[in-house]
Amino acid sequence: MADNDARAETEIRRQRLGRITFRAWRRGFREADLVLGPFMEREGPGLSDADLDSLEALLAEDNDHELYAWIIETNPTPAEHETPLMTRLRTFMRAHVAAAVAEGAG
């Protein structure tokens, strides 16, 4: 019975990660897609449930330009989104951009 519960929990998490990854790649604003999509692919499996909750709240925002501005810190981030997840996302974005520039993509 415990084995079935563990499998069900694993499947629920796998589906949740899949939904979030899909949404991260399809924001409608390419710059946001190019940060959020790779972030989910590389970091998503290791995120805690609390981080996934924060990310889902972030992805629920309608204004992709504003969301991207929060990530790159050109606009103030609302307090409810200034989370450890946002810090991790910004760190990833800086490293991701630096790697792309080093490879000649920038």
UniProtKB/TrEMBL annotation:
<keyword id="KW-0143">Chaperone</keyword>
<dbReference type="GO" id="GO:0006099">
    <property type="term" value="P:tricarboxylic acid cycle"/>
</dbReference>
<dbReference type="InterPro" id="IPR036714">
    <property type="entry name" value="SDH_sf"/>
</dbReference>
<comment type="similarity">
    <text>Belongs to the SdhE FAD assembly factor family.</text>
</comment>
<dbReference type="InterPro" id="IPR005631">
    <property type="entry name" value="SDH"/>
</dbReference>
<protein>
    <recommendedName>
        <fullName>FAD assembly factor SdhE</fullName>
    </recommendedName>
</protein>
<dbReference type="Pfam" id="PF03937">
    <property type="entry name" value="Sdh5"/>
</dbReference>
